[in-house]
Amino acid sequence: MQASTFPVFDLGRFEKAGPGEKKALGAEVDRICRTTGFLAITNHGVPQPVIDAAWSKARAFFDLPAEEKERAKAPYKGYPYGYLGPELEALARSRNIDSPPDLKESFNGGPLRVPEGMNDPEALAFCYAETIWPEAPDGFVAAWRDYYAALEDLAMRVMRLFATALELPETYFDRFIDAPISALRALNYPEQHVPPKPGQIRAGAHTDYGSLTILLPQAGSRGLEIITPDGAWTPVPPIPGAFVINIGDLMARWTNDRWVSTVHRVVNPPADEGGMDRRQSMAFFHQPNWDAEIVVLDACLGAGETPRYEPVRSGPYLMGKFKATTR
């Protein structure tokens, strides 16, 4: 898949459009989400200085010696936030596929605030657990928080686009995402000095768990691939100035599989094409409120069709998915 054929959507145009044009643009997004569930979003409104600050601080963190990064590590297996060192996660296991651990390290952070009145012990111990912040580099926490807040706003606006695409009122999803339990993950795929183990790649084949993911890939990088409708692994090109958006399992469930949560992975390109080089990305995993009940939308059921899925609560559903991937 070349940059010229990968779907690119102008979010700013949608937000400024009148009702008729919004409906047409929504139909375009619906077609994309029915086929691959992956698209690039341009004119997204996230200030470039906010992006640059978060990116550079994440890179500076990953540049630290291992012992310094370890001071911010997750305190025990299954803790969702903080530093996760190399080869401690195997994403393919979320699909019950045994695989070597992924060739990556990450820093993970959760919601910036706990909603007033939240007292569910599972929510407080998992989604609202404290982020284990690093001591260095200076300015890391402020840059991270600014980027998280900007992506939380962007996710809400994309959900309004999705509502239009599903021929729902534009603000339909607002009540499900006014206290989202989203997570932000900075990923570093280190430079490789030895060949990987058999079957070992940078991120194993998986689907994302929530409503949508907002990915910021490294400019010019290679390795992200999706399974397209023809069954082939197909590269996703980084689009300058754009975020890559993809549908997660929860949104596929919400739409009764009208929309596709596509399997994707990060591979090692050939060594002579940069396959051993360092690569960075930042992924924002948007997830509805902890207590949001996800029930198949009536708008996604045809005449006489019944839901394929039972209702689930957003938080416990996410927790179960997450715990399957860490060792």
Entry summary:
The chain has about 325 residues and is α+β, with helices and mostly antiparallel strands. It has helices spanning about 10-15, 20-35, 50-60, 65-70, 120-125, 140-165, 250-255, 315-325, and strands at about 10, 40, 80-85, 105-110, 185-190, 205, 210-215, 225, 235, 245, 265, 280-285, 295, 310-315.
Report on the structure:
Helices cover 27% and strands 18% of the residues. It has 327 residues and is of the alpha+beta class. The chain has a single domain (8-28, 37-323), classed as B-lactam Antibiotic, Isopenicillin N Synthase, Chain (Jelly Rolls, Sandwich), CATH 2.60.120. The strands form three sheets. An eight-stranded mixed sheet has the order 1-2-10-7-12-5-4-3. Strands 6-11-8-9 form a four-stranded antiparallel sheet, with no helix packed on it. A two-stranded antiparallel sheet has the order 13-14. The mean pLDDT is 88.
